[in-house]
Design brief:
The protein is mainly β. It is built from no helices and 10 strands. The protein starts with a strand and ends with a strand.
Length: 119
């Protein structure tokens, strides 16, 4: 059973930073072969992708976080990160990591980690 476990969420003041981690375990196919993404879901809103990273390390970001968030990966640790800087109250949400489509373990999601940004 493949598992993704997120960590690093918490409460931070506006302008602050957090780094989220997502570690894969449980027989995941070569982690390096998977494109990974970070999503978030705020109360009353649909889940949206905020960042993605391909197996080759190419990244993309939602406009709302471009220039403030950075996604990276460490294949030796089966871990993907989301560095979040200059956080804003509108970044408050539950953040999830997931394996992106057209890669071996597509459809695998983590349980989510809460990020709360106070003004």
């Amino acid at each position: 059973q493949v598992q993704l476990v997120e960590s690093g969420g918490g409460v931070v003041q506006a302008g602050g930073s957090l780094r989220l981690s997502c570690t894969a375990s449980g027989g995941i196919a070569s982690f390096a072969a998977n494109a990974m993404g970070w999503y978030r879901q705020a109360p009353g809103k649909e889940r949206m992708q905020v960042a993605g990273i391909t197996s080759s390390g190419r990244t993309n970001y939602a406009d709302a976080v471009k220039g403030r968030f950075t996604i990276s990966r460490d294949n030796a640790k089966n871990t993907v990160y989301l560095q979040m800087n200059n956080l804003k109250p509108e970044d408050t949400a539950v953040y999830y990591c997931a394996v992106l489509p057209e890669t071996p373990n597509f459809g695998t999601w983590g349980q989510g980690t809460q990020v709360t940004v106070s003004s």
